[in-house]
Structures are given as structure tokens and as C-alpha cells.
């Protein structure tokens, strides 16, 4: 999810951090067993977490005003010729992850009466028409990136790629989550959604209980295991809603260890970048999405509470508002992962390639809105207040840099979609729950 090396390669997801093949998965066996032993009392910390997801509680005028700002993004960045919405404001490119966010934003906006039923159905119909027309990578599944004006398969810099560059299982998982929510909330859309999915070879994205993407390398196509802690479980929960066998990926227990960060035991992925060529950040977004769309299960509730608690603990130690997630930034390297823990380092800020950019640490607006919707603590409210002034004519900017408080001015679909989902959660609870 970069206009350079990563800008649009799985906006909002970790699909592009694949690279762990099946043989490497077997190589993990002994390390995984050790992690399972350490995690045998996995759920015991639940009793001491002290944080419970807040129920629906009705929205305030401030919440509604925040949602209106977020909706501006979708008004300003929809492409009338296709009905798709740009992933980054003004750049005619998108991923399936972001179109899943687009659809969930539409459902959220309609659910809190920002848009009426007629506008909702018009926009959904246009979007489905585009998805019915897009060419498929290898004739099987949607490509990682499309031009939002032409529907052509493209590369990350939006150069046409007639043969495509691959598919992302996690991007597809987000789209599948959105389709299930749409079908549940608006059953009349079900036949059209299912007819669309009949074109897609969904079975190709799952194997031996895990998620697999595809990448073109010259004349060859490689199939790579996708997802790291949090994102992998999110994608698996979505895929399971459509009957895919993703049992191994649906729980973090076999890949989880605990590491102390700011005096809080936080979950980390035992798969390390130096061994498997993929970053492994622990951060906010996948847990917030699970909460807003399906509701947290016992495992994700525990992990979410620990990830949140570590961020509040860092604030208490340093005085620095801390809300970490993946985000675009308005300068090179254009996309970074702010993490609680990544690749052996607490509070690491890393690029897809694993380079560290701690000097560009930012407070994520979508994380601040998300954690405040989920837990509603004094600290989350302070973090959300810290985002004041980031409203613009085409939506919310991505956040603020920690070093000097200046705005991270880039404006994205995913940031604004998460704000809409957060406000819907405050109003009505999980999208799939009603």
C-alpha cells in the first residue's frame, strides 16, 4: 500500500510482505513448537488486560462532523467513468484492499445516514460494474493494482501491465470481507456479488490452511505465503466467511511469541525478516478492522488490548502521543509501518524493505480514531484530540509527525474509510453485527 516501491502494493495490508514459501513454513516447525509451549497459557492474560471493547453508544455531533470530513474523500476522489475511488487523493490507481475499504466506507456512511439509500445503491452498483469488468491476473484472480480510470492492470507506478504483476491474498481478503458485510446488510446485492465471485478462482488464494498470493517474476509465476501477525488472521477470518480452508492462518498461536515493550507484554511474530525476507510489524490496524467489521474474538481481544496498552504506556513514559499503524507519508520513502515491535526492535518505523526511519515516526490519525472508538479511554480521547486541524477539503490527512507535530499531509482512501468505520462502530457496533 507506495507511489515509489510500495505506494500501491497493498495499501493497508501486508500482502506484499509475502516471501515465506512452503518449504520455509516447514523450516519453522521447531521454532513454532517452542512458541506454542510459551503460549500454552495464551489466554490467561485476558483476566488482567483490563480493557473491554466498548459497545455501541450513539454518536455525538463531534463524531458526525468527523465522519462528514471523511466522506469528503469519497466525493472528491471517485472516478465517474468507473465508480472506483483512488487509493491516494488525485492519483488514478488502486488495489483490491482499498476498494474493499471503499465498499465498507459506503456501508458505514449509509449506516449513519451520511448518504441515503439511493446514493448508496448507485455508488455500489457502479463499483460492482467495474469489478465485473476488470481483467484478472492469469485469468484467475484480480491483479494487485488497477488504473481507476481505465480498469487496466498496472504496476505500482501505474504503468500499464497487460499480463499483470500478481495477486494479493490479503487484498482479496479485505474485498471478501466487504462483500460479506454488503450481502449481510443488503441481501438484495447477494446474487450480483456471488455471480461476480464465480469469475474468481478463490481456491487459488488458500493452500494447506494458509493464504497465498502470486507474483510474476519474468516469465514465471511464484506463489508465496502471505500475511504476518494480525493481518494474516484478519485475512483468514474474511476468507473463511466464503468457505476457504484457512484454519492454520486463522489463529496467531502457532506464530506468536510475547515480548516486553514499555513494560507491557505484546504479541510478536516469530517469523523474522532476516530469515524470511519479510517485515513482521505488530501494529494497530488489523485489530481495529476486525473489531469494526466482525467484532473481536477472544484471541484478537487479548492481542488488541496489549497493543493498545503498550502505546499508552509509551505516552506515560515519554509524553509523546503514540498511535502506530501503517500509513502513507508525504515524503520518501512514501509508505512506512509505525510499529509497537518489528524485526527485533521496539517502536521501529520500517519500510517494506526493512529499512528503519525512526526520524519519520508519525501519530496515525486512523489509529487514534480507531482506538478511541474501540476503547474510549482518557488517553485515546487525548490522542484523537491531537488530530484536530488535519481536516481538509478532500478528507482527513494521515496524521502528525512526532518530532515536531507538523501534519503528514497526504490524504488517502484507507485513512478516511477507517474513520467512517470507527464512527459507525461507535453508533451501531460491528458492521456484520446488525
Automatic annotation (TrEMBL):
Q: Where is the DUF3131 domain?
A: 66-428
Pfam families per the UniProt record, alphabetical: DUF3131
Extract the InterPro entries matched here.
Answer: DUF3131 (IPR021478)
Return the protein name. Answer: DUF3131 domain-containing protein
User: Which species does the entry assign this protein to?
Assistant: Shimia haliotis
